[in-house]
Structure formats: structure tokens, C-alpha cells
Design goal:
By secondary structure, the protein is mainly alpha-helical. It contains 18 helices and six strands. The strands form two sheets. Strands 1-2-3 form a three-stranded antiparallel sheet. It has a three-stranded antiparallel sheet with strand order 4-5-6. Helix 6 packs antiparallel against helix 11. The chain is globular. About 40% of the residues are buried. Bound molecules: carboxymethyl coenzyme *A (CMC).
């Protein structure tokens, strides 16, 4: 039953047996291209009267997918078969979007055409601007994004028929294109500045930066170092297999809900500090620690269960090794701070924290390593984003993954409405 050996017997020949209440149940074992096999328990209830119980889905595959592969033990992440390090080095975010949506990197012609589609969809319906003013100025941009993205379905009726391929494709392009515009508008609203329209002559990351940082009263020039770093950050966050927000998108979509509603559900899930909200939480934690001399005391608190303190930006459900995205992020962090000539004391705190944690038995035994969020906050801060924009940026980047996974689910004949069961326990 071990994966990676390349010598598996054909699926039809392989079964797993379970003896339960004196009934032997045989279940098919299915193999992926790489990665662990799965036991297909779909008939278990019918044949034994039992459900499986797996809170948090620690041992449960909910679908088969061709999009992203993670080997958590080895610290490997592949988008459509391409290692993340290679994509982060040699591709831009839009190429990666094309890859995730279509299965292969684009040719020059395909790229031009795709770029044109995305660029032409960046504006939001003018009437949407009025939505924003309904929110309090001090609303978190994620709260605004949940509402505004959900509202997209009330504007774009011509791309909500999930059974029509054309609608699905247009909805995908709209989501990828409009999410930066919406996130930037949420930011501008929160700081009381006018909305800045997208600029079609700029690349994806540069356009996002100008929508966030330009003001109508003076020219704005995108710093290429900053644009490159942001583009890379977006690549690193673009997809991550069946994580909590992606599973939320799939579950919402399994009922036949329209894609805009599903992505709004994904944004809501991403916001939590155990998931996309960790980048904000990690930076706040670094600020709270403040100085390397305070690290030992903080580590003591993390190790004390009664304190309920976690080392944010550390640990991962799947990675039991260094998160490959964290490595690229750490390099990007040094590069950006170096090129921009910024000295950030929080980087010293982060590096010392990482050094201590990687040598501490508590973290070694639990296989806790830095994840993508450990260094991302320092880079985003150097670029000029306030912490409240960290998770919205994650949402902007992850939208393509969500929509690619949603589309794959809709087109998968094996998918049904997601409907878990429960272990009912009487009160008392
Ligand atoms: N600091 C201290 N202890 C930790 C941490 C941490 N960051 N993460 C896990 N542990 C401990 C935990 O207390 C538990 O100990 P014990 O076995 O003694 O009860 C053990 O490690 C296993 O933890 P778990 O919560 O059962 O593991 P999980 O797979 O359910 O949680 C996680 C994964 C990411 C939610 C968790 O590691 C965490 O809370 N990390 C901090 C938040 C964070 O950085 N999240 C971003 C994840 S990467 C970006 C993304 O995909 O969204």
C-alpha cells in the first residue's frame, strides 16, 4: 500500500479488508500517479452499517485531482507537475494561473490571449463601488471582500450557469481579474482614499500595486523590485491542494452554487488564523516579541499547553518538513529588504526564532517547521502593506487555485454533493 514505488498492482486487483461486527468488508484500493494510495470507503456504510470517523480529514481524500501535489514528508510542492521553486524562479503569476487553470504552461500565443482576457476583466461594475460605502471605514478588508465577492453573482448573470463551459471559463477569468481590484478597493476604502482604476498596460502584480498605492494627485511608478517580489508571493500562494478554504469552495460548489458564491465562502474560511490569517498573526507575534532577547520567554509560553500560545507561521497539517514555499519566501525576504535598503528588526527576531525552534526538542519531535506565512509578513510590510492587507493578498493569490479546483470538481463525473455524516452523542 505504499506509494512512490511505481510498482503498484492495477487498482482492480487491490483491496483492503475490514472485519467489523463479524462481517468482512472488502474495499477497493486506488492509486494516484504519486502519493499515498486511498481506500475507497464509499460502500462501507451500505455493507457494514458503519461510517468512518475522521475529524479534520487527517486521513481522508475527498476527491481526485490533477492540479497540485504535496509530499509533506519530503517538502515537495508541484503545480501540475512543476516544482514550486522552478515556477517561482522562471514564471510569472499569470503564466502560473494559466497552468493551474489549463494544465500546461502557455505558449507565447496562448499567454498573449490569456493576458488579454484577464486584463479586459479587471474592472468591476461601476455600481459595485457603492457596496463599499455600506461598510464601516474600520471594517477589516477581508470582511469587505467576503461581502463584495459574494455580491458579484448579482452583477454577472452571464457567467453563473455552472453547466455551461463558456460560463465557467468566463467566471474563472472574471474571478482572477477582479479579485485584485476588489482587494485594492477594500484597502483604499479603509484608508479613506479614492478608488484607483486598473491599468491595462501594467502586468498583474504591478497593476495591483498601483491600485493600492497610487493617488490621483501625483504620478505613481511601480518599483520593479517590489513588483517582482509580489508576483513571486502570488505564485507561492496560488494553490495548495485540498486545504481548508479550497475544500470549502469545493463543498459549497458541490451543491451547484454559483462560482462567485463559492469563492466568497473560500474567502471566509481563509480568514481564520490557522489558515490564511496566519500571516497577519505571525507578524503581530513578531511585533509582540519585539526583540531577540524576549524569544526564550516566548518559546517557554508556546511549549506550555496552559498558555494556549502557538508559534504562528510554524507547523502545517501536511508538511512534516520545511515548507518549500517558506524557503523561497525567506530568500525573497532577504532580497527585498536588501534591494530596498530596509533594516527591519523583525527579520532578526524571525531568524533567531526559527534558529531556536529548529533546534528545540518540542518542535523537532512534533515536526514543526516554518511555513509560508513565517516570512511573508516581513516582505509585505517592506513593500508597504499594513497587516490588515496580508490575508486579502493571500486571497488574491489563492483565487486562481480555488477557481481551478471548483472547475475541476464541476467537471468530475464522480463528484456528488458533499454531505459528511456524524457520530451522534446524546447530551447528558
Ligand atoms: N506552535 C506550537 N505548537 C504547535 C504548532 C505551533 N505553531 N502547531 C502545532 N503545534 C503542536 C500542537 O499543539 C500539537 O501538539 P500535541 O500533539 O502535544 O497536542 C501538535 O503540534 C499537532 O498540532 P495540531 O494542531 O494537531 O496539527 P494540525 O495539523 O491540526 O494543525 C496548523 C496545523 C497549521 C493549524 C498548526 O500547525 C498551527 O496552528 N500553526 C500555526 C498557524 C499557522 O501558521 N498556519 C498557517 C498554515 S500555512 C498557510 C496555510 O495553508 O494557510
Amino acid at each position: 500500500m505504499n506509494a512512490h514505488d511505481g510498482s503498484k498492482a492495477p487498482d482492480s486487483d487491490r483491496t483492503a479488508s475490514l472485519l467489523i461486527n463479524n462481517v468482512q468488508v472488502k474495499m477497493p484500493v486506488r492509486s494516484g500517479s504519486i502519493g499515498p494510495d486511498v481506500i475507497d470507503v464509499g460502500r462501507l456504510y451500505r455493507e457494514s452499517g458503519c461510517f468512518t470517523y475522521d475529524p479534520g480529514f487527517t486521513s481522508t481524500a475527498n476527491c481526485s485531482s490533477k492540479i497540485t501535489y504535496i509530499d509533506g514528508e519530503e517538502g515537495i510542492l508541484l503545480y501540475r507537475g512543476y516544482p514550486i521553486e522552478q515556477l517561482a524562479k522562471s514564471s510569472n503569476f499569470l503564466e502560473v494561473c494559466y497552468l493551474l487553470l489549463n494544465g500546461e504552461l502557455p505558449t507565447e500565443t496562448q499567454y498573449k490571449e490569456f493576458d488579454g482576457h484577464i486584463t479586459r476583466h479587471t474592472m468591476v461594475h461601476e455600481q459595485m463601488t457603492r457596496f463599499f460605502t455600506g461598510f464601516r471605514r474600520d471594517a477589516h478588508p477581508m470582511a469587505v471582500m467576503c461581502g463584495v465577492v459574494g455580491a458579484l453573482s448579482s452583477f454577472y448573470h452571464d457567467s453563473t450557469d455552472i453547466h455551461d463551459l463558456k460560463h465557467r471559463v468566463i467566471a474563472s477569468h472574471r474571478m482572477v481579474a477582479k479579485m485584485p481590484t476588489i482587494a485594492a478597493m477594500a484597502f483604499k476604502y479603509s484608508i479613506g482614499q479614492p478608488f484607483i482604476y486598473p491599468r491595462n498596460d501594467l502586468e498583474f502584480a504591478s497593476n495591483f500595486l498601483q491600485m493600492c498605492f497610487a493617488v490621483p494627485c501625483e504620478p505613481y511608478e511601480v518599483d520593479p523590485v517590489v513588483a517582482k517580489a509580489l508576483d513571486r508571493i502570488m505564485i507561492l500562494h496560488a494553490d495548495h491542494e485540498q486545504n481548508a478554504s479550497t475544500s470549502t469552495v469545493r463543498l459549497a460548489g458541490s451543491s451547484g452554487a454559483n462560482p462567485f458564491a463559492c469563492i466568497a465562502a473560500g474567502i471566509a474560511c481563509l480568514w481564520g488564523p490557522a489558515h490564511g490569517g496566519a500571516n497577519e498573526a505571525a507578524l503581530k507575534m513578531l511585533e509582540e516579541i519585539g526583540h531577540v532577547r524576549n524569544i526564550p520567554e516566548f518559546i517557554k509560553r508556546v511549549k506550555d499547553k496552559n498558555e494556549g500560545v502557538r508559534l504562528m507561521g510554524f507547523g502545517h497539517r501536511v508538511y512534516k518538513n520545511y515548507d518549500p514555499r517558506a524557503k523561497v519566501m525567506q530568500e525573497t525576504c532577504h532580497e527585498v529588504l536588501g534591494k530596498l535598503g530596509i533594516k527591519d528588526d523583525l527579520l532578526d527576531v524571525a531568524m533567531e526564532l526559527e534558529r531556536i525552534a529548529l533546534h528545540d526538542d518540542y518542535f523537532i519531535e512534533k515536526k514543526l517547521y516554518p511555513n509560508v506565512d513565517f516570512y511573508s509578513g516581513i516582505v509585505l510590510r517592506a513593500i508597504g502593506f499594513p497587516v490588515s492587507m496580508f490575508t486579502p493578498l493571500f486571497a488574491v493569490s489563492r483565487t486562481v487555485g480555488w477557481i481551478a479546483q471548483w472547475k475541476e470538481m464541476i467537471e468530475d463525473p464522480e463528484q456528488k454533493i458533499g454531505r459528511p455524516r456524524q457520530l451522534y452523542v446524546k447530551r447528558g
